[in-house]
Amino acid sequence: MPFWLLFAVFLYCGLCESEESDLGYGLNIGNAIDVFANYGDLSQVTQVVSADYEEDNPPHVEPFREKNIRVFLNASSRQSSGDTMVDMNILLCDTFDDLLATYFQNFRIEGTDKPWKAFLGDWILDEIMRAFGIEYDTKPDNCCYVLVKLTKVHKSVQMDDLRNVALKDYVKRAIESLNVSDPTDLRKFMKSYGTHYIDSYVTGNFIYQASTVFKYKRTGYNLLRAYIRQRNMRHSSSDNLRFYFSSYFLKQVGEIKIASGNKTVETWAKQNLRDSQYLYSRPSLLRLHYNPILAFKLNDLLGNGALLGLGLKTLRPLFKDQHKAKMFAEIVENDMKLWEVNV
């Protein structure tokens, strides 16, 4: 075989090996993913909501399992550790869409205002409501909602700026040969090298009701909203939350769920976080608000099995040619809008 042909084969094999070694399935800051590969069901490859598994606690459930590729040669990031204790939030939602948007408020995908659709857009309503621990309702927007979350952050990672960041050689070559006037060629590039890169992420765990979800009668919801607003304004130590979460106001109390899907913790919560009022006894995360001992026990149980936040930015910075950058960004954002409407 001629020397030049041997050299070409060696070069090709080296390129393949380099690209293969740059492929991953975990949380790799700066790596690129194709959002459309699992759009509408990104929850299949990320641990963001409680899920039903065949086993109670299946092994090797990672917060992020989507295929990604290294496109930057020397990207750097900064990392910070989370709080040592859980943090409780009570979040008010006027509609079911608000509930979904609030749940995914720490998820940002450049090109869309509704990142939750990328994760749950393909789910039927019954599946979504079950994941939130509430009973199926054919008209969910006839009610208002309150989401109670107890969050424990393990770590937060943020990518540094891209001013001095270089590209991998095979990405450079792909961009140079890319015909941005051809949508088919652009979409082939997106499938090979992605649409967005991972700019930030947060891992940890949180419990919600199951984070806590309560489904409200409108009058009770308005009273609770007014109370929480006044409580936050005056920073009062007095606390009548339990009264506003009583059966007098509630239409339905959701089940307690955990984002990592850990059924052992869910079972512990259902057994230990019961609130008795009048003739009723039901699980309630508010028990943790009034019982520090239970809060400490839960804190020890929460691990690092869930994705709490994710920031995805388009691969526009890869393109030094501003025309190519604009054409690439336009087709990604247009496709995002189409997928958002159609899921």
Description:
It is a single chain. This protein has about 350 residues and is an alpha+beta fold. The chain has one domain. Helix content is about 35%, strand content about 25%. It contains twelve helices and 14 strands. Strands 2, 4, 5, 6, 7, 8, 9, 10, 11 and 14 form a ten-stranded mixed β-sheet that branches. The longest helix has 21 residues, at about 320-340. The model is unreliable at about 5-20 (pLDDT under 50).
Report the count of strand segments: 14
Number of domains: 1
The arrangement of helices and strands along the chain is HEEEEEHEHHEHHEEHHEEHEEHHEH
Helix fraction bin: 25-40%
Give the CA-based shape: elongated
> DSSP strand (E) fraction?
15-25%
| Tally of individual helices | 12
Low-confidence stretches: 3-18
Radius of gyration (Å):
23 Å
Mean pLDDT: 86
Protein name: Torso-like protein
Organism: Parnassius mnemosyne (clouded apollo)
Keywords: Signal
Signal peptide: 1-18
Give me some keywords for this one:
343 residues; disordered N terminus; 10-stranded mixed β-sheet; two-stranded antiparallel ribbon
Q: Quick gist of this model?
A:
With 343 residues, this protein is α+β, with helices and mostly antiparallel strands. It contains 12 helices and 14 strands.
